[in-house]
Amino acid sequence: MTSPVVAVGPDSTLDEVCDLLVARDMSAVAVIDQGVLLGMVSEEDLIHRVEIGTAAPRRSWWGRLFGNNAALAADYLKSHSVHVTDVMTRQVVTVSLSTPIDEIAALLEVDRARRVFVVVGGQVVGIVGPADLVRALASVRKNLPRPVSFHDDASIRQEIVGALRSEAWPSIGEADVIVTNGVVTLWGGYLSEQERKASLVLAENTAGVRAVDDHRVPLDISYAMV
Predict the structure, then answer these.
(1) Are 190 and 199 in contact, with CB atoms under 8 Å apart?
(2) Which domains does the chain have, with CATH numbers?
(3) DSSP 8-state assignment for residue 18
């Protein structure tokens, strides 16, 4: 996570928020009052503004007559107000320090949250966004152990077969995997191009593999399901 969290107060103005976002090259700031997270102001909250001509066009008299009064007024506040409390997003996603990183990744992807706040005892202690996960990935990959230069063919084959069995997508069978002098030869078939590429990556990432020779052919899915 990124910590400490850059924040503004509920009495802050739109100008203060814009200056922070631009000066620090950030995509969002938290809105905090006495340590309590009230919401956030993000780039998404500021893309429809009257100053730059991107506010939602005024509705026709018919739309105004039958439109939702509260929603119409809220749209106006979002695009015209200079008060943080009028433009901020109040519904934010929060996690704890013990939340697994895979759950955070799911929140960022499935809920389109783009960022989640880490809260401890009601206090915001950090923020996690896609960039933080990329930094974590880069750090982990730098510290990955170097692959062993040599494994015997039997152990390489055993590891590949075991890895294929642990996945739900492979069509390839155990007998279709042959390893000779570190070169993996794949026979049989595959149901999709994605499956073919995934199995190649699985084999390539196995320690001791020098090359992968793919002799598989595409399967007719209707035939494969019989």
Answers:
(1) yes
(2) 7-141 (3.10.580.10), 153-224 (3.30.1340)
(3) H
Q: Which string of DSSP letters, residue by residue, matches 123-192?
A: EEEEEE-HHHHHHHHHHHHHTSPPPPS---HHHHHHHHHHHHHTSSS----GGGEEEETTEEEE-SEES-
Residue whose structure tokens are 């509705």: 59
Angle in degrees, CA 193, 196, 201, rounded to 5: 125
pLDDT for residue 61 = 47
pLDDT digits (tens, 9 = 90+) for 141-169: 887 776 555 579 999 999 999 999 999 99
Separation CA 204–CA 193 (nearest Å): 17
Residue 25's DSSP bridge partners are none
